[in-house]
Specification:
Length: 77
């Protein structure tokens, strides 16, 4: 897999989980408004899980970018 495709994949997955975080927040708010606390609790758990995976993906992308930058600097030398 070339590095450009891998970088685009990391960005896509990061944004996908960010959409999950936003959807989780919206569902929690909706179910709290209609007073369905059990469903709100379920989506709060989804929100927490999606947030953790989003942060993990973001860290993974940044480490990959740093690695690729370091590798490019090594090629120039």
């Amino acid at each position: 897999m070339n590095s450009n495709l891998q970088h685009k994949t990391f960005i896509f997955l990061e944004r996908l989980w960010l959409v999950g975080v936003i959807a989780g927040i919206c569902c929690v708010i909706y179910f709290l408004i209609i007073k369905d606390n059990d469903s709100a609790l379920f989506f709060f758990g989804f929100f927490i899980l999606a947030s953790l995976i989003y942060l993990m993906r973001k860290r993974q992308r940044k480490k990959h970018e740093a690695f690729m930058k370091h590798q490019e600097e090594q090629k120039k030398k």
